[in-house]
Amino acid sequence: MARAPERAARMSGAPPPRTPPARESQKVYSSTDIGGGGRRAFAEFSSYVVRKAPPLERKVECTLEELCAGCKKEVKYTRDVVTKNGLIAKKEVTQIIRVKPGWKKGTKVTFEGLGNERPGCLPGDAVFTVSARRHKAFKRQGDDLVLKAEVPLVNALTGWSFSFRLLGGEKVSWSFRDEVIRPGYEKVVRGEGMPVVGGKKGARGDLRVKFDVVFPKNLTGEQRRGLVEILRGCA
Question: Is 8 a domain residue?
């Protein structure tokens, strides 16, 4: 015997009401599921995860002047690409790296997806690491520049003048007339070091000039006696 709602629906000519289907539940498998079925399902799922090819790593060498002022470096490298037949072929690539003022040794530049290709993998990245060429006069320490100057002992005691050029080419001249240059003496010029990356506009480190007093290797007896007379009583 049909129930009242169904009988009423038939009498009116409308289709009987439908019971909504039950929602299907989906299980998310993990490697910790107990039982072989769970582990098999996780392994099957993992097989569809696309991995990325290892990065292609190279170095890009810059001079201290280039790291100070900034520059453009053209880099050429060879990458592996997958052909339509699934084979590996070599391809020459040229990229431009825009070196920003103040970059340090070890700074990395990444070209995403422009490294080596491997079948079944996403293309790897091309990663370039900045290296600094040794400078003949200056040494970098953080954002500061250090310049070492050798001063003969006689000039350290009686007066000395010397000049040098900054990384930008400007000439600097110093004279020491009324002061004695002591071993380990250091003169600091504020704001003449390297640009500070991420700092305030125009922020720079300092230039530190370290003086190395060069002593004579040998003295005659007469020279020693003369120095004793001259230096006796000096503070």
Answer: no
